Amino acid sequence: MLETGEMLLKKLMTVAGLMLASLAASVPAWAETPAAAQAKWNMPVGVTEISRSVHSLHMTIFYVCCVIGLVVFGAMFYSVFAHRRSRHPKPATFHESTLVEIIWTVLPFVVLIGMAIPATGTLVKMSDTSNSDMTIKITGYQWLWGYDYVGEGVSFYSRLDEASNAARQLDSGIDPASVENYLLNVDKPLVLPVGQKIRFQMTSADVIHAWWVPALGWKKDAIPGYVNEMWARIDEPGIYRGQCAELCGRDHGFMPIVVEALPQDEYEQWLAKQKGGDEAPAQSAETAAPATEAAATESAVAGDMDADADAGESEAPAAAAGDELSRDALMETGRNAYQANCSACHQADGNGLPPTFPSLHGSAVVNGPVDAQIAQVLEGKNAMPPFGYLSDKDIAAAITYTRNSWGNDAGVIQPAQVAAAR
Amino acid sequence: MAHEHAHAHDHDHEHHGPPPGLMRWVKTTNHKDLGTLYLCFSMLMFFIGGLMSLVIRAELFEPGLQFVHPEFFNSMTTMHALVMIFGGLMPAFTGLANWMVPMMVGAGDLALPRVNNWGFWLLPFAFALLLSTLFIGGGAPAGGWTMYPPLVLQTGAAFPLLIFSIHLMGISSITGAINVVVTILNMRAPGMTLLKMPLFVWTWLITAYLLIATMPVLAGAVTMLLTDKYFGTTFFDAAGGGDPVMFQHIFWFFGHPEVYILILPAFGVVSTIIPTFARKPLFGYDSMVYATASIAFLSFIVWAHHMFTVGMPLTGELFFMFSTMLIAVPTGVKVFNWIATMWKGSMTFETPMLFAVAFVFLFTIGGFSGLMLAIAPADFQYHDTYFVVAHFHYVLVPGAVFSVIAAIYYWIPKWTGHMYNEKLGKLHFWLSAIFINVTFFPQHFVGLAGMPRRIPDYAVQFTDFNQISTIGAFGFFFAQFLFIGNIMRCMARKGEKAKARAWEGAQGLEWTVASPAPYHTFEVPPQIDDAETQAAH
Questions:
Q1: Which candidate in A155, B187, B267, B340 could, as Cys together with A148 as Cys, close a disulfide (CB 3.0–4.6 Å)?
Q2: Mind telling me which residue stretches traverse the membrane in this protein (chain A) (predicted)?
Q3: Contact residues on chain B for A79, CB-CB shorter than 8 A
């Protein structure tokens, strides 16, 4: 059965038409998107010298591919059209040509060398982290980022903002389009100065994450046991958004990164405020937990677990650990801590998501020895990440909450017990 | 006397046909039966893996979570990949090899028929184990098909099942590969020199060596994961002196050749089909063989281009960037040769040819994005985004999968003795070609614009392209039922009866025997007629 060339052409045009139509149909929708300023079709140019080099490498190789494609596909479609049987009934018999084969081996070589030279230059520049003006240590956690301003004594955690978090729950009933910067907003952005060579050091406390802000021009893995380095010098003040780029478990899609680049003087004011603006003692990132989130007042939502943690720990950890808290206080704090940290998997009603996340109703862990439950919360198990970065009070309260809700009645535990188990 | 004896057997003695009943399929050692079993199994897996992809695409139709929880979404992406690679594509190519390699080299069967039976029957058990993890405590594996620690060690009760099923798949692949190698090297008909072998046989010979070299590496890597989880070792645990990045090096030392395991036989299929329908010998047979071998060699020294962002030293990044870019040279030679084969041919466009031409076109687009990904500094942006998803789906779906479809259309007259329905085949082609581009082309855009892969939910500016992509995926999935219908039609012996040489321009020993091919093909080695071999110098 033969396909005539006209039929084939007609079909090809139909295909092209359909694809164009489907693309065109989507164009008007963009105009309504609130985040229309963000990149849609192509890699953003970015705001660092490196990102501009990367973008120009990307565009160069893209154009090279386009030209090669035009020649190769041009030859192919010409042949499909002109050398079909109805127009070209007697096939040629040639089946090799050493000269032609050598030419089309050597030519790509030359093109590749032409590409490799600028790529090498950019790569060398990117890997030079020397002579930096300041260093930020980034730690990936399941599922938030810890930032440490090395030498400044400032560190804090940055996690998905409350509005996105509420809207992203299954069947939340909230339209994501109504949330500003849905999934690309955090409670506390990383604030950086413009014009400074900033060295970033990445590591991770649990699984592998990757820190990626497209406007800076790169991403880098944060790996437990490793410290990776990259650098950036941001040109323009602004807010730049990115996300974790390495599969890191259940909430991998909900681990945004926001960089707020400020002019030098504003950055210094901000930094000074972080250092001295609060009575909370600066702690190192390893032990700090959200208590070091000095700007507790900025934690927007009342009853937010971070705010609770600050309240609990600002009295100094030893005092908090020694205090006996009432059952009601623990249950109240525990409900909030549970909603913020546990409910995405175990559900607000404790029903869990079997088979991955068991129900807490009558659960053997929740109703069993308290030490085992504390250990599981601190260290994690299977798909449950470790929650050791939460404060003693939050952990104790959340455990108390699970042990005394949904028909469970397994007693109250105090922050001191958690502190002892650490 | 001996001649008479053989002649008498040609007709109606029962041991020349398959034994009747269901046990025939369980106990068979016949390469054609096992080829059919492999192909049916892979078809089932393609549909299961396809359903998983529809779960993924349905969830991504809109921002926000509508259908599944994030953990289950991750399970779906993980299982989709494992099922498609190890259950769909690899058995499909093994099925093609089972059917065609003995016929193409003039052998009566594969060299190790009982091993062949074992190799196949491991697969249903392996996948029963793997798929059972969807129903057990802790949920199915959700750490990605690459199984990077420490994340994969968070898998619950599914973990040992995952590892064991991978071991079984690996053993199955190795037995299949050894069988192919021994058959090709020892059982060619007299006069069939290596450089007269059909390209499909050549590509499978090289693929088989890749399998034998890399599957044990994967087995080692997953065994180390197993002992890390249950036996207190710390191969990949930094806290115990191990190294999580070492897993990635070992995994991709397997994983990169693996992607060529999935595409080299496809090159062979396309190099068989294009000359047939261009009615012109394959251009540059020798350089095709050398290019295939070079690609196979290079595939062993480029693994870390999957790990550009892992923090390698500059020299490492440069080495892996240059070696990866080099792969474009032999791959380019292959594409140019295919086009030179079409050039000044006398082409007709039956369904296998349509799929083969689409393969050349769309696989090359996947190759271009691959070249872009090879540029390490740019890869710092592309890595782990939908740009990568678009890239590898372009090489694996309109690439490898299209070649499998083309091969089935091309050889099914030989398998069943009946021609498929050409109109249905063409409709299947056009729907597949359109929908596959609707599915994957927009993913280039969202990837470049900043959408990471493996996320169950995304920022609203990516909505439009994701919706197009989802529509394409559903369209592609449902279009495949036309294919099933067409195959069923041939198997039910409907449709025009096929001639021995079903295609006018077809060359090769398989077309010298009747259609359908007799249960035992060559009892006496065939005479090699130079006109039947590809390299008719």
A1: A155
A2: 61-81, 102-124
A3: 339, 342-345, 347
How large is the average pLDDT for residues B320-335? 95
SS (H, E, C) A5-67: HHHHHHHHHHHHHHHHHHHHHHHHHHHHCCCCCCCCCCCCCCCCHHHHHHHHHHHHHHHHHHH
Tell me whether residues B332 and A108 touch, CB distance under 8 A: yes
Please provide the DSSP assignment of A279-291 as one string: SSPP--HHHHGGG
What mean pLDDT comes out for the span B506-519?
A: 90
The tokens describing B350, both together, are 């039956």
**What's the alpha-carbon Rg for chain B, to the nearest Å?**
23
Dist. CA B380–CA A360, nearest whole Å: 42
Q: For residue A381, give how far its alpha carbon lies from the nearest alpha carbon of chain B (Å).
A: 7
What residues contact residue B349 under an 8 Å CB cut-off, 6+ apart?
A2, A3, A8, A80, A84, B277, B357
Tokens 């565009």 sit on residue = A59
Please identify which residue in the block is written with the tokens 């096929």.
B498
Arithmetic mean of pLDDT, B288-314: 95
Report the pLDDT value the prediction gives residue B14, as an integer from 0 to 100: 45
pTM for the predicted model, two decimal places: 0.83
Q: In this predicted model, what pLDDT tens digit does every residue of B479-493 receive, in sequence order?
A: 999 999 999 999 998
Distances A188 to A181, A184, A293, B357 between C-alpha atoms, Å: 14, 12, 9, 53
**Is any Cβ of chain A less than 8 angstroms from the Cβ of B433?**
yes
Q: Are B473 and B439 contacting, i.e. CB atoms less than 8 angstroms apart?
A: yes
Q: Which residues of B touch A249 (CB under 8 A)?
A: 74, 142-143, 151, 154
Q: Exposure string (b/e) for B283-312, b if CB count within 10 Å is 16 or more?
A: bbbebbbebbbbbbebbeebbbbbbbbbbb
A91 near B280, Cβ under 8 Å? yes
Chain centroid to CA A65: how far? 30
Alpha carbon distance A394, A385 (integer Å):
16
Least confident range of A112-116, A361-365, B320-324, B420-424: A361-365
- For the segment B52-100, what is each residue's pLDDT rounded down to a tens digit? 999 999 999 999 999 999 999 999 999 999 999 999 999 999 999 999 9
**Do B449 and A38 count as a contact with CB atoms less than 8 A apart?**
yes
Residues 6+ apart with CB under 8 A from B408: B39, B483, B487
B9 contacts: CB under 8 Å, gap ≥ 6: B16
Cα A389 from Cα A385, distance rounded (Å)? 11
Judged by DSSP in three states, B38 sits in helix
Mutate one of B309, B353, B430, B444 to test the A interface: name it (highest A CB count within 10 A).
B309
Mean pLDDT across A400-421: 83
Per the prediction, chain B carries an average pLDDT of: 92
- Report chain A residues whose CB lies below 8 A from the CB of B286: 96
pLDDT tens digits for range A80-124: 999 999 999 999 988 888 999 999 999 999 999 999 999 999 999
